[in-house]
Amino acid sequence: MAENESRIEQQVKDRVKAFNRQRIAPMIAIGFLIIAFSHLPLIAGYELPPFYFAMICPLGFFFLLVTFVLSFRQAVIIFSLSIFFLAVFLFLKQICPAFFFMSALVSAGAFAVSQKIARDFIKTATEEVSTTDRLKLEAATDYLTQLLNRDGLEQAVETAWAFCKRNKKHVGFIMADIDYFKSYNDVLGHLEGDKILRKIAECIETCFKRQTDIMSRFGGDEFIIFVSGIDDDQILEMAKALSSTIYSLQIEAADQHNAFKFLTVSMGIATSDLQAHDLSIDLYRQVDKALYRAKARGRNCISFNGKIIKTEPEPIGEACIETK
After folding, report:
1. CB-count exposure of residue 260 (10 Å: 0-12, 13-18, 19+)
2. How far is CA 93 from CA 46, 55, 186, in A?
3. β-pairing, 265-273 with 301-304?
4. Which one-letter DSSP state was computed for residue 146?
5. Could you tell me the domains of the chain?
6. Mean pLDDT for each consecutive 10-residue tract of the chain (324 residues)?
């Protein structure tokens, strides 16, 4: 939550900077106009009263305050400079006290307007960024399980893949498929089938708690988990723990061909020490083939590195392990 708020705050700051950069050119043009206006009487041969020059200073500060989106600190500095220069003119008796107070009131008004502009801009920008992020999240999330969907997985893995490649991290895909899932929909109905999918997603979230773990419902009854920074033995243990945790849900099998009493999953694992030319699609193809081998070898097992690892059901108890 804190990380998301920090990211939104940074995006808002970037918008403020972009907005202010767009206002630099118009402000320079206004500055030239003010200077040109102040010199017109001199060109015409008229001698200007001292307060005329004193008026240019607060006018320039006024445009600064209302043109840019300024923080409270920035606005205070500009307002203080405006009052300081007016005070200098007053001390030198170039302006009268009435003019000083009138100009100070104008600067104070500009300060108030500046802060309202800044608050409104930041509020609007924050709402827009938050809404955009929420819509992106919804577009990348599976509505049923609240895990990432296929598009969300591809986006997340793309970022993680580049990071792992730069830092030479060991990565792996775990693909899990519910055994005989169609029978649950046929016998129990699709609503119960949806409940089962949500329970499987909860098991995955329970077993893969690290911030770097990327979990997805890839489609139908297939789930993919992307892991990084751990070795093959740890990845295999995590897959075994997931299998045991799912079996411990004790969801009774609905297919007569299922050799186990409760719902099981088949899993494939593919891992790699990333090289510069490696692509995530290649590792995905490997894990897809591994899953196919697991299903072909009787289900309720894990296919990894050409081997079939049988998973012993643990019908009771918490099976997940902690992996740092």
Report:
1. middle
2. 21, 14, 94
3. parallel
4. -
5. 2-138 (no CATH), 150-310 (3.30.70.270)
6. 72 88 81 65 56 68 83 90 85 82 86 91 89 77 92 92 91 95 90 94 95 92 95 95 93 80 94 88 95 92 93 51 46
